[in-house]
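Write out this protein's structure.
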Amino acid sequence: MVNNGVKKGIASCLKQIYNLNPNSHVLFTVDGGRAQVFDAFHEAVTDITQEIGILDLDKYERPLKEVPYELKGMLEKLNPDIAINLFEAIPQERPIRIEQIMQLIKHGVAIAHCPGINLKTIRDGGPFENDFEELARKGNEITGLFKQYQEFEIHSGDDKYVLKLAVGEREWKSDLSPIRASMGNLPPGEICIGPLEDSANGKVIARGRAGEYHLNSYALLTWEDGLLVEIDYIDKEIVPELIGSCDKKYSRVIGELGIGFNPNADPFADILESEKSEIHIARGPQKDMGSIIQAEDHLDFLVLNGRVLGIDAAGVKHPIYPLETRSIS
């Protein structure tokens, strides 16, 4: 049973990002694998609007070979402005999911894509138990701090390791900013940017999560001129997956600097929650983060207990994250 605080938080999240209101038309795409999660989201939505449609993927043979034929009719009849995807992510269905998402975006729909949400994610005191309007204000404060600088240092391992990178004139994005005819992943609580592709140099310690992998020990990542050139990790078998294949275009290029600020996100949860807890970096640039190239894959690494320093035009370094480390003028 999901408590009322979590349901209230789900509604707050959908209002902040997707403008959920009494006039909203909401399309759920679901399957039995996320039934209890769907129940929580459905109750949160029905408290606000009754204009709801449900596309049940369990009616179809899985993995899907094509976009469900019902979708076109539901787009015409329901005319949704919000779509909430709550179903098991089957790797073979990725091309179909992309096609469905593109159809929704073409129709002007704002999509809440929730591949990482399970019962643990909607736990008491978890990442959805927040006032997301207030959390968005915190995100704007953090964005204001970071946008003052074009170069940064990420310190980890008790300052033993330092990774330096630059973002130039690129813009920071908050996943709590309102969206329309676009897609966002839930739960939210981060700002992110695509660093300049040749700018990352140095070493950084990752721990907790690396994409779908749980890191039970520290992983030392070495970057040279924007490329991830080495990973030192105790489990040698997964290192090739962590570092990325040379056969996949741009997969080892620096792809993201992200700053998590959701106070209830667990750094050891699935990556879509854990990355909202602290600093994370990624290999594999994405154009929607401001990069000029698009990699074939993208992998996030969590940097536990790290620090970020902004470097001003005079070369002076300013502690800016965590927030309590920054200087008060």
